[in-house]
Amino acid sequence: MACPLGGLLVSYFMDRIGRKYTILLTNLLGLLGWLLLATSFLHSDRDLIYAQMLVGRALGGIMIGMFVSPVGVYSAEISLPRIRGRLILGTSIGLAGGILLMYLLGYFIRSNIVLISTISCCYQLAATILVFPMPESPSWLLTKGRDERARKSLRYFRGLPKKEDDYVPEFEDELAHMKATAENSRNTAASESLSQVIRRPEVYKPVLMMTAFFGFQQACGVVVIIVYAVQIAQRAGVSIDPVLVAVMLGVARIIMTFFMSTIFEKWGRKPSGIFSASGMGLCMLLLAAGGWWPDTVGTWHWLPVVCIVAHIVFSTMGMLTLPFFMISEVFPQRARGSASGIAVFFGMILAFIMLKIYPNMEAAMGTANLFAFYAFISFLAAGFIGFFVPETRGRTLEELEEHWRTGKYTRRLTLNNLKEVELHERFLQK
C-alpha cells in the first residue's frame, strides 16, 4: 500500500520542487529504506527488528511509487521527438535491471536479507550521487519564471557550448516555443483552480485514458506473472528450479527492453501495444490449455517455460512498458506532474489489488481458468489500444496537448514529416 502513496506524493513534489529534486528525494527515500533493512538485525529485540523492517519496506514502496513519473517526465522534457522514446525507456531499462538484480541475489543468496540489502544500498547510493550534477528541466524552470537558468539548461541538453557566441536559429525557435507554452501554463495556474484545470479536455481525457490503460495492464496479469513467477512456474509444472525460471524471466525482460526504443520508433506505440497484448493473450491461452488437457498438451514439459518467458517478452514490448512510457508524453505542461502522479496512483492501487486477490482467484477459478481469464483481458486490451490510445511517435508534447483539446493534430504525420523533424534537430550534431 505504500506504492500508491508514492504516486500521490510525487504529484505534489514535481510541480513544487522540480523534476530534479523530486528524483533526488526519491533516491534518498530508497537509500534510507535499504539502510533500515541492512541494519535491522543489529538489534536483539524482535519487535524493534520487525518495526524497522516494516518502515524500511514502506519507504521502499513509497520510492517505487515516486520514481516512475519524475524520471519519465524529466526525460520527455529535456529531449526532442526523435530521441524522446529512447530516453524515456531508460526508466524501464533501470527497472528491468533492478528486478533482474533481485532475482540473481535471490538465486545465489537465498537466506541473507542483510547482505542483499547491503548490496542494494550500495546500488541506491550510486544512483543518488549521480543525480546531483543533473541540470533541472528547462520546461519546469520556465514555468517558474527562471528564464536564464532554463536557457543554460536547454543549451546543455542540446549540446551547445556554455558561451553564447554562436546563434542557432533552431535553438532560439525551440526556446521561444517553450516560453510560450510555459507562459500559458502560468496564466492558467493563476486564473484557474485545480478542479477547473482537471475539467479541461486536454487534462481529463489523457487521465481517463491512462487510468484505463493501467487497469488493463494489471488485469491481464503482467505484474502477477513477475511477482509470482516462482509459484506460477511450480503450478504450471515446470521441471527445473523455479527460482532459475525467475532469473530467466529477468534476463528476457532486460534484453527485450534494450530493443524497445527501436521497436517503438519503427513501429510506433499503438502497433507495439496491440502486438504485445495479443501475444500475451496467446501465451496465457497455451498455459490454460496445458491445464485443461494435461494428457496431451500437458506432456510437453517445455511448454510452460516457453510460455512464461514469452509472456514476459511480449509484455515488455508494450503492456508492461507503454503505460509508464506514455505518462511522460500525453499530459499538458501545466498538469504534467499532478496528472502523471494521479495515473500512477491508480496504477499502483490496481497492482496492489491484483496481487492481493491472485491467490483467492486461483483457488476459486483454478490455475487453468485463471490463465484463460488473463488471456481474455489481454485480447480486450489489444482492442482498447487500437481504438483509444493515440500514436505519439514523432509528435511534440505541444502537438499531443492540441490533440486532446481539439481531437485532431495540427500537422499530419508522414515519413517526410519525420525526416523534417530530424533535419530541424540537426543542431544536435554540432
UniProtKB/TrEMBL annotation:
GO cellular component terms, A-Z = membrane
Principal location: membrane
Occurrences of domain Major facilitator superfamily (MFS) profile (ranges): 1-393
Task: Please give the InterPro entries that the UniProt record associates with this protein.
Answer: MFS_dom, MFS_sugar_transport-like, MFS_trans_sf, MFS_Trehalose_Transporter, Sugar/inositol_transpt, Sugar_transporter_CS
PANTHER family, from UniProt?
A: FI02132P-RELATED, PTHR48021
Q: Which domain of life is it from?
A: Eukaryota
Presence of the UniProt keyword Transmembrane helix in the record: yes
- Any one Gene Ontology molecular-function term assigned to this protein's record: transmembrane transporter activity
For this protein, the parts annotated as crossing the membrane are: 21-42, 54-75, 87-109, 115-134, 207-230, 242-261, 273-293, 299-327, 339-358, 370-389
Recorded protein name is Blast:Facilitated trehalose transporter Tret1
Q: Give the record's keywords alphabetically.
A: Glycoprotein, Membrane, Transmembrane, Transmembrane helix
**Membrane topology of this protein:** Multi-pass membrane protein
Q: Where in the cell is it found?
A: Membrane
